[in-house]
User: Fold LLM class F420-dependent oxidoreductase from Mycobacterium asiaticum.
Amino acid sequence: MRFTITHPMHSHPYNPELASGSGIATVAGAAEKAGFHGFGFTDHPAPSQRWLDAGGHDALDPFAALGFAAAHTTTLRLIPNVVVLPYRNPFVVAKSGMTLDLLSGGRFTLAVGVGYLKKEFAALGVDYDERAELFEEALAVIRAVWTGDDITYEGKHFTARGITAHPRPTSQPHPPIWIGGNTVAARKRVAEHGDGWCPFAAPAGLARTAGTAVIDSVDALASGIDDLRRRCEAAAKDPTAIDITFTNFEGGSPAADDFNADAYLAGVEKLAALGVTWLQVGLPGDSVSHAVESIDRFGSLVIDVI
Assistant:
């Protein structure tokens, strides 16, 4: 099992310490020292005030911030959580991802999602109703650009002729592509285009808000994993080669006084048995020092034990 964190800017307003270069370097460095395997940022270039007031969060640009984190670490994988792919031209995403992978020595994973905030789509000039088509075309473009030369692509949204984008990524055949979302459609995309699946814990209320399927238990996750395996096998893809990320329902938050490491470790065993390969660990966002304290605690109570 591998563990990853998202830089804890998960509120509005945010603690300014977390949006500083020193704050990012401190959190990323502490995570690497504690034995974490991945580090990322969220993606919200134009959130609405209404969404922020309702519990949304501020964000840095994930590509720029991951580049800064890469320069202050040596082993952490750079895993955005997640890039909303329809917001951007896929040739630009391919170039940004390639650059991160090359400069970090092959440490980039492109984790992507379809997105759900209508006002953010509108602000960026992207048709919300076409987001699924944009997403699937973009996946095909990115993989082609990362692996071939003299690329020609004819799609509804993107057309290109004779494109060669060098330098190539360090990772071969290309950086892993993880696909977010809890739906059947997300798992279909993993089977066709992806190297990993990123579902997230979503009770009914959150699922409605995010426009996704409910995953509120280990049993619900297991059902989704079974479906993913069937789809991978039908596509002649080895399901055991697919990374699966999730969170642990057991043990509580590592930032809480009542964090139960034994219960957490028991939950890790259950998830590993299902095929989960990465766990997303939540951090407090009230200060850099509290985040680092939680990282250190988790490292000693969980990662060092495993």
